[in-house]
Amino acid sequence: MVRVQGMPMQAAERRRLEQEQLKAERINNIIECTFGLFAEKGIESISMNEIASQAEIGVASLYRYFSTKEDLAIECAIYAWKMEADNFKKYFATSEYDMFSGYEQIKCLLEIFPEALVSQSSFFRFIYYFDAFIKKEKVSQARLHNYEEAINVLKDVVICAIEKGKKDGSITFTSATNLSLRGATTNELYFSMMHSLFSMAQKLSLSGEMLYMDLEVKPEKQMELLVQFILAALK
């Protein structure tokens, strides 16, 4: 018999915990199935009926868990960013990373992008579709609070690396002739770098080989060059 703090767990309590676990598993399955659909086909074109069918549940059950498609899309976005943070965590959550200079930390983080463009293309496509959907539906900032918190996990890591680089002298812009780079705030540097990288990743994931001219340079090579441009500017 299961015990809680040395006492036998009552049958009612055990059933409650089992039901909560089952509910959590169902919600996670819905989110995973929905993320796959949204990343492949976009959000606008996918109906709640199609989501329910993919998740192998009734549409009424789906609405009990998520009252609107907006709510479900936001949960998918939180799930997507947590996955992406885990992908980056393999690199920054190590003792070796802690020993790097600020510039070396930024270099380590940015050099993940060319590989991520290939292995995480569904993430970049989904984020593009999500942004467009949220803007179209005019979802309030308040409803996006948890989503923003999920993004901030990665933001905090990059911000810390930039600030460390400024303090240890590894990020100085000594070779930069543009004075605006030297005077840029940490937040300005963060958003300019990351928006550039994510915008390119989204574009290449969605239509990287749409035209004949797109075949002249591989998408991952373009991403690698952008990373090198940014790193060169930081020196």
In words, what does this structure look like?
- The protein is mostly helical.
- Helix content is 74%, strand content 2%.
- It has twelve helices and two strands.
- It has helices at 11-41, 48-55, 59-65, 69-92, 95-99, 102-110, 113-119, 121-137, 145-168, 179-182, 186-207, 219-234; strands spanning 3-4, 7-8.
- Strands 1-2 form a two-stranded antiparallel ribbon.
- A hairpin with a 2-residue loop joins strand 1 (3-4) and strand 2.
- The mean pLDDT is 90.
Give a quick summary of the entry.
The longest helix has 31 residues. It is built from twelve helices and two strands.
Per DSSP, what share of the residues sits in E-state strands of 2 or more residues? under 5%
**Oligomerization state of this entry?**
single chain
**Average pLDDT score:** 90
Radius of gyration based on Cα positions: 22 Å
Basic shape: globular
Write the H/E string, N to C.
Answer: EEHHHHHHHHHHHH
Placed side by side, the strands forming the largest sheet appear as: 1-2
Cα end-to-end separation: 62 Å
Structural class: mainly alpha
Helical content band: over 70%
SS element count, helices? 12
Largest sheet: 2 strands, antiparallel
Question: Helices and strands in order, then pairings?
Answer:
Elements: E1 3-4, E2 7-8, H1 11-41, H2 48-55, H3 59-65, H4 69-92, H5 95-99, H6 102-110, H7 113-119, H8 121-137, H9 145-168, H10 179-182, H11 186-207, H12 219-234
Antiparallel strand pairs: 1-2
